[in-house]
TrEMBL record, chain A:
Organism: Halonotius roseus
Entries under Gene3D superfamilies matching the protein: Histidine kinase-like ATPase, C-terminal domain
Protein name per Swiss-Prot or TrEMBL: ATP-binding protein
Gene Ontology MF, one: ATP binding
Domain annotation Histidine kinase/HSP90-like ATPase: ranges: 29-144
InterPro entries: HATPase_C_sf, HATPase_dom
Transferase recorded as keyword: no
Signal peptide (from-to): none
Keyword Ligase carried by entry: no
Automatic annotation (TrEMBL), chain B:
Listed name of the protein: STAS domain-containing protein
Annotated organism of origin: Halonotius roseus
Chain segments carrying region Disordered: 125-154
UniProt cross-references to SUPFAM superfamilies, sorted A to Z: SpoIIaa-like (SSF52091)
Transmembrane segments: none
Pfam families given in the database record: STAS
Domain STAS: 5-116
Length: 146, 154
């Protein structure tokens, strides 16, 4: 899609604090969920928004583990004006996604997970950005504002 | 994996209740499915209640396993009912676009037992049998057929 996606095209935001979780096992997926839950709760998201965020993390962390085996989730507490929110980046150096548009649209995926998970996660978040190619792997950035 | 992440399958009358742990690994979810089917085979229950009241994150994988488990229970001749979905989980699942299609749901375990045809009277009978004939009911409202209550139940 684009060359070197670092942050999403969305609003500029200030980063208040951040952390990373390396995801290379199922236990790490669990850890990523727990960390995202703790941060989202601390930021003050509603129970339903926390559930949306953690569910999205679960989908994206699992995909990363499934297709790239090894990757990193970075979370950031962000602020723009009066708005506070969370940004989550899933970055791997896996094989990349061949058909990005297909993945974003697919109602059912061929592998029984990916398309549905990514497409669903997009609905749960306020901003979603995906860059992927065979050289650099895949980076997915999502944001949720309070 | 700690004990609190592992699954629990218990039996109530002739119904299995499988309680999904709140924050399981994918492996723990798979294990519970296996455990439900094994116990189904051993105990031949009339139904299985899949209790997800502790579940705070129902992603597409977890939802698929629950649907599959319900389908397998039905293939084995039982009825599966999902109970206890939290409001936030229901909202998120609907937004993600996975309803638990073709899966029966109930508001509570009591409601699910009722749907499976387990009535309070059945329960009383079982209790009465196990206590031999020691019990005499005093409750005027008791309509249990087994009671030889002095009040003259109809």
């Amino acid at each position: 899609m684009s060359e070197d996606g670092k942050t999403s095209d969305a609003v500029d935001a200030q980063v208040l604090r951040s952390g990373t979780i390396r995801v290379r096992s199922e236990d790490d997926i669990l850890r990523a969920r727990q960390e995202a839950r703790a941060v989202a709760e601390e930021i003050g998201f509603s129970t339903t928004d926390v559930t949306r965020i953690v569910t999205g993390v679960s989908e994206l962390a699992r995909n990363m583990h499934l297709y790239a085996e090894d990757g990193i989730m970075t979370w950031r507490e962000i602020e723009a004006g009066r708005d506070s929110g969370i940004e989550l980046v899933f970055d791997d150096e896996g094989p990349g996604i061949d058909d990005i548009q297909g993945v974003l649209r697919a109602e059912h995926s061929t592998s029984g997970g990916m398309g549905r998970g990514i497409q669903g996660t997009k609905k749960l978040m306020d901003a979603f950005d995906l860059t992927s190619n065979a050289e650099d792997g895949t980076t997915i950035t999502v944001r949720k504002w309070q | 994996m700690t004990a609190s992440e592992s699954a629990a399958v218990t039996q109530v009358y002739d119904v299995l209740i499988a309680a999904f742990p709140g924050r399981p690994t994918d492996q723990a979810v798979d294990n519970l499915q296996q455990e439900v089917l094994n116990q189904m085979n051993e105990t031949d229950p009339r139904g299985v209640i899949l209790d997800i009241s502790e579940v705070t994150t129902l992603d597409s994988f977890f939802a698929r396993v629950i649907s599959e488990t319900a389908g397998m229970v039905e293939l084995m001749g039982g009825r599966a009912i999902v109970v206890g979905m939290r409001p936030s989980v229901a909202i998120t699942a609907a937004e993600l676009g996975f309803g638990l299609d073709s899966v029966d749901t109930a508001r509570s375990t009591d409601h699910a037992l009722l749907m499976l045809g387990v009535t309070v009277e059945d329960a009383d009978d079982v209790a009465a049998e196990s206590e031999s004939e020691a019990a005499t009911t005093h409750d005027d409202g008791d309509r249990s057929g087994s009671a030889l209550s002095p009040g003259g139940g109809r």
